[in-house]
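Forum: Protein Structure Q&A
Topic: Joint prediction for protein chains with partners

I've read a bunch of threads here and the consensus seems to be that you should model interacting components together rather than docking separate models afterwards. I'd like to see that in practice. Below is the full input, 261 residues plus whatever partners are listed. Could one of the regulars post the assembled result?
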Amino acid sequence: MSEIITDKITGKTSAGDVTITSEGGAVTMQLQQGVAKVWFHFNGTGTVSNRGTFNVSSLTDNGTGDYTESFTNNMSDQNYAGAGMSGGISGSFTDSISFDFIASPCLTSSLTMNSRYAGSTSDTERSAVQITGELA
Amino acid sequence: MAGKIIADTIETGAGANVSTSYVVNGSAKAWANINGTGTIAFSDSLNCASLTDHSSGIFTTSFTNSMNNASYSTATACNLNNAYSGDMIVDTHATGSIKTKTYYGASYAGTDVTINCHSNFGDLA
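Posted by a regular:
Agreed with the consensus. Here's the joint model:
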């Protein structure tokens, strides 16, 4: 088994481009593009709090079911892909809960989200999002 | 000529290490941020070649490089920006594409919105 011990990986031909070989061996892809740049899991009830994060500086409670996560390092543009889920409204763990981004476009420095139940914004006990795209 | 490293583990100088399998298997293989209004278009994407608009809120994203099988994992989110509940869901996983639907309201009517995101994790062919 081989092992690399390093603090930094930089592309040789292009600093921001390190390729990896696909599991099936048929193609290569750019490592940086596929790595999640931000992820978070927060409790949106009571005093809101992050349970686990990466590249997140703070969570803001804007109102019922309305949250903003601010990033430590900004994304390069507003076209990143965020994907996530939300669940756990008190007393109703089985009903459909929608989770959507209310800012259009999203901001490079933060993401504002709504969780909704039965058409109204509702605080949810757990929400989680991963963001892929380019860092500034 | 580009350099090449073949390794099973990557470790930082501080001693934190991770198997390269986590790097390869844990990286998103395709992701997209799609503007679904008007002529639908990618705002940004990785490994996505084209879009097919089927009807309101329903479209197919074709991948540039196919997934190894149709059992990959997808996470989605969108901006409904209205007073209704709704979601963006996966209709069909295929190795070369993914078909999604963004809907709202009790009738689950498809709707066109400006942000439709999906991230896909699994094995590339």
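Chain A has one domain: 36-132.
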